[in-house]
Amino acid sequence: MQIRLLGRIDYLTAYEDMQAFTAARTDNTPNELWMCEHPPVFTQGLAGKADHVLMPGDIPVIQTNRGGQVTFHGPGQVMAYPLINLQRAGYYVKEYVYKLEESVIRTLAYFGVTGHRVAGAPGIYVRLDDPFSHAALLGPRHPGDPFKGLGKISALGIKVSRHCTYHGVALNVAMDLGPFERINPCGYAGLKTVDLSTIGVETSWQEAAQVLAGQLAARL
């Protein structure tokens, strides 16, 4: 897999480039992994509801063809866009999503943080009271608030076209989290969003991107 470190690029540029790359693929096109960050932008998924965008203000809202609801991208967030031919790789979409999430969990573990999955809510979460605890999330979640005591540190949204993936996964490293309060993140009102910095991990965007890229390349 070819890993491309793109630095900070405009979201629409990355979106259009991913579409063009996927449309031009042949059965022999090598898989690629694009790592980048974006200027501030809200992106809305195919099933996204307008009422989940509360106060966009001066931050643009871009409609996309990925799955999921609204989320925020901005400086200090690692964006990973795997461009994978799933048919050639030999696994299905559900396993692909599992591999994305597992790569984030392993990346967090590198920094001493325990990441958790929540059933029915793609992405990775951490315990707000002790993000370094290795204890599993046991039993059913709080019926009125399935995210009680948790913060979301990684969101994912994908698109598959002709067995080929684009869009991908975000890992919050050290960013302005304020814009997340202007939306219902991923469609969940009141969902707390965190980054590595707010839970006490000091690292650079470059280091986090390198670790995540390595974990993704190893699994995909």
Task: Give a short overview.
With 220 residues, this protein is of the alpha+beta class.
Layout of helices and strands:
Layout: E1 2-8, H1 11-24, E2 32-37, E3 41-44, E4 61-63, E5 71-73, E6 77-83, H2 86-89, H3 93-110, E7 116-118, E8 121-127, E9 150-161, E10 164-172, H4 205-219
Parallel strand pairs: 1-2, 3-4
Antiparallel strand pairs: 2-6, 3-5, 6-10, 7-8, 8-9, 9-10
Helix pairs in contact: 3-4
Verbal overview:
The chain is 23% helix and 28% strand. By secondary structure, the chain is of the alpha+beta class. It has a single domain (2-219), classed as Bira Bifunctional Protein, Domain 2 (BirA Bifunctional Protein, domain 2), CATH 3.30.930.10. The strands form two sheets. The chain has a seven-stranded mixed sheet, sandwiched between helices. Strands 4-3-5 form a three-stranded mixed sheet, with no helix packed on it. Helix 3 crosses helix 4. The chain is globular. The chain starts with a strand and ends with a helix. 36% of the residues are buried. The model has no long low-confidence stretch (mean pLDDT 95).
